[in-house]
Amino acid sequence: MTETPARTVTLVVVDDHPVVRDGLRGMFTAAPGFEVLGEAANGVDALAVVGELDPDVVLMDLRMPGGGGVAAIAELTRRGARSKVLVLTTYDTDSDTLPAIEAGATGYLLKDAPREELFAAVRAAADGRSVLSPAVASRLMTRVRTPAADPAETTLSAREREVLVLVARGTTNREIAAELFISEATVKTHLTHVFAKLGAKDRAAAVAVGYDRGILG
């Protein structure tokens, strides 16, 4: 028996194809625990809609006439928007994935992802957890580059490695603290050190670098 989620996750769907928007709206409306607040056909309109409706998650396509997704993500990040952006696109090329993550996207999925995977990704994004499809993670492994530095200054400690592994699994700071029997403040300190050592600016980028360096397998 499927349990009903404890809270409803609100969404805004951004895609230039009306059929795609209708399909996503119908899919999420029919599933328990989701509410689609609105839609937009391009990145420029998305900024206005997100600003007005303040959803938990924005499902963002990337290549759209009238305003692309990466620019919209960067602007939402600049504005300090509460909404988390989950990229949902058909493109997994190097020129698409990295800019989207660098702009501030919480996750990146391809449109051929199974329905349940998409639902889980949206819930994870709403909780602030990073989500990367296997294909995207694989591409980022070969694309992410970090500044040259003294290896002694960039090697993760055993505890920092544990924290990064848990981040890669989509674990929240609170859950990491509970699992490792440390405070959330200590988790944040470890993450700050991990970001600095890996040359990453957020959780998704740190996970990508972790895969690239073999830290995560």
TrEMBL record:
SMART domains: HTH_LUXR, REC
Gene Ontology BP terms: phosphorelay signal transduction system; regulation of DNA-templated transcription
Record-annotated Response regulatory domain positions: 10-126
Modified residues (4-aspartylphosphate): 61
Domain HTH luxR-type: 147-214
Taxonomy, superkingdom: Bacteria
Listed CDD domains: LuxR_C_like (cd06170), REC_NarL-like (cd17535)
Keyword terms, alphabetized: DNA-binding, Phosphoprotein, Transcription, Transcription regulation
InterPro entries reported in the protein's UniProt record: CheY-like_superfamily (IPR011006), NreC/VraR/RcsB-like_REC (IPR058245), Sig_transdc_resp-reg_C-effctor (IPR016032), Sig_transdc_resp-reg_receiver (IPR001789), Tscrpt_reg_LuxR_C (IPR000792), WalR-like (IPR039420)
Pfam families xrefs: GerE (PF00196), Response_reg (PF00072)
Classification via Gene3D superfamilies: 3.40.50.2300
One function term, GO molecular function aspect: DNA binding
Matching PANTHER family: TRANSCRIPTIONAL REGULATORY PROTEIN NARL-RELATED, TWO-COMPONENT RESPONSE REGULATOR
Protein name (database record): Response regulator transcription factor
Species assigned in the record: Streptomyces parvus
